[in-house]
Design goal:
This protein has strands at residues 14-19, 22-27, 32-35, 43-46, 50-53, 56-59, 75-80, 83-88, 92-95, 98-101. It has 102 residues and is mainly beta. It is elongated and about 65 Å long.
């Protein structure tokens, strides 16, 4: 078997899987920028919103950072994979970018 992966035939956001007589390109984990294999522990570097922790790229909980990320009044932070979003607190609704009581 010829190792086609030796020539790095895959794109930057993929890794190469050598198979008998062939190869396939597989997508890197969402937490990676470039990878050497499957999963968040095979990242070359972590994607934005992720940090290397115990040899894995793990999501940063922006809502638990010392500095508040959602600064408007009556607004709550919701952590998402690799990011976060600011939503109006319960009993409030977004009206032209301001959270007003419903």
């Amino acid at each position: 078997d010829l190792d086609e992966c030796a020539g790095s035939p895959c794109k930057d956001h993929q890794y190469c899987l050598n198979t008998d007589g062939s190869f396939s390109c597989k997508a890197c984990d969402a937490s990676c920028v470039g990878c050497t294999g499957e999963g968040s522990e095979k990242c070359k570097t972590c994607a934005s919103g992720y940090v290397k922790e115990d040899e894995k790229c793990t999501d940063i909980d922006e809502c638990n950072l010392p500095e508040k990320v959602c600064t408007k009044e009556n607004q709550d932070c919701v952590n998402t994979s690799g990011s976060y979003k600011c939503v109006c607190s319960q009993g409030f609704e977004d009206k032209d970018g301001t959270c007003v009581q419903t």
